[in-house]
Amino acid sequence: MARRAESPAIGAAGGPPVSPLAEIACPDDWHVHFRDGDLLRSVVPETARHFARALVMPNLVPPVASAADASAYRRRILEAVPGGVEFEPLMTLYLTEETDPSDIEAAAVGETATAVKLYPAGATTNSGGGVRNFDLIDPVLEKLAEIGMPLCVHGEVADESVDIFDREAVFLDKVLDPIRRKHPELRVVLEHVTTKEGVDYVSSGGTGIAATITVHHLAINRNAMFSGGMRPHNFCRPVAKREHHREALLSAATGGGEKFFFGTDSAPHLKQHKEAAVACAGIFTATCAVPCLAQIFDDSGAIDRLESFASLNGARFYRVQPNAGKLILEKCESPVGYPDRILAGNDSVAVFDPGFAIRWRARRI
Ligand code: NCD
Ligand code: ZN
After folding, report:
1. Which uninterrupted H or E stretch holds 93?
2. Structure pTM?
3. If I label 54, which of 36, 99, 311, 327 is the partner at 20 to 30 A Cα–Cα?
């Protein structure tokens, strides 16, 4: 059974608050990876501490591809939610070249799934079953457009001949834009956008497209992967980019626009798989995501816009009400403590270190 590492609990330090309490609608995480088994049991409580809902990515092995898979997975997630905590997992289906549009419609009608996830095959962790020939998914895209169900997109080409730092921009040009021209009614979420090109594409793209932004892409640029040596815990897909891209993401997140919302892409991998010759892609942020986001918004003079980004914009795009429950945020005199890892089975998962002190603590009420 998973246990938490013996490190200070969130909010254990920090000293007295220096700001009045801020109360916001409880945040949603519109992009999270929970995995399964021991790891699932370790990470679900981390997300449920500050988020009332989360859109759960389907890239298990084998993938969550059918409504039946999604229902069973949802039950396993709910079993891992601590007693007394209200938390709603919203499910996604993994799009393959074989996906049947009528199954998608059935999952939408039965409210078993909230969205469908498109992984270009080979672009990221467990994407091998994803899409190689985008023409083959036309019938599914037509169905999604017809029923208004969002398509969540991992926006990178998987082509190894394309420079890894260009793969998002090339995807927008070569894959996403043609898809959206062919299916103008399709509702798209460009997941974990990392570039200025992506921000501009979404900003100018009308009401049918929005984007999630992670806390780690707001906190670090690509230097963080190589600071003093290779830093596998700062490695994810899409990889962090140059500083001017981070600045574009920050402006988009804090700018008050409705098309950008919080999706942590919290992606736990065991330490043995991160600290390896070939390190897995994924950064685990669930434990500190909300306090870290508050710090970033505060440092940008935009704490009053945190609620839109973390709790309102995504709900509007997904056509659900904001959470009725609240989150209390307070700024402390000194840095708050949080664990640097959580235990999972016989191993552990490193918690994201943004490289700056966090003085905000959060608590659901
Ligand atoms: C994610 C994972 O580990 O499942 N990895 C990552 O680097 N973000 C998959 C993904 O969202 O790309
Ligand atoms: Zn992800």
Report:
1. strand 88-94
2. 0.96
3. 99
- Beta-carbon contacts of residue 48 (< 8 Å; ≥ 6 apart): 81, 82, 85, 87
Please identify which of the residues 29, 265, 298, 353 carries the catalytic annotation: 265
Q: From atom 6 of ligand 1, which residue's Cα is the shortest distance away?
A: 282
Average of per-residue pLDDT across 230-259? 97
**Of 130, 43, 136, which Cα lies nearest the Cα of 89?**
43
Q: State the pLDDT at residue 10.
A: 55
**CB within 8 A of 210, min separation 6: which ones?**
188, 189, 190, 202, 258, 259, 260, 261, 313, 314, 317
- DSSP for 265-296 reads -B----HHHHSSSSPPS-B--TTTHHHHHHHH
237 lines ligand 1 (CB under 6 A): yes
CA–centroid distance, residue 127 to ligand 1 (Å) = 9
pLDDT tens track for 123-163:
998 999 999 999 999 999 999 999 999 999 999 999 999 99
Q: Is 188 in the pocket of ligand 1 (CB under 6 A)?
A: no
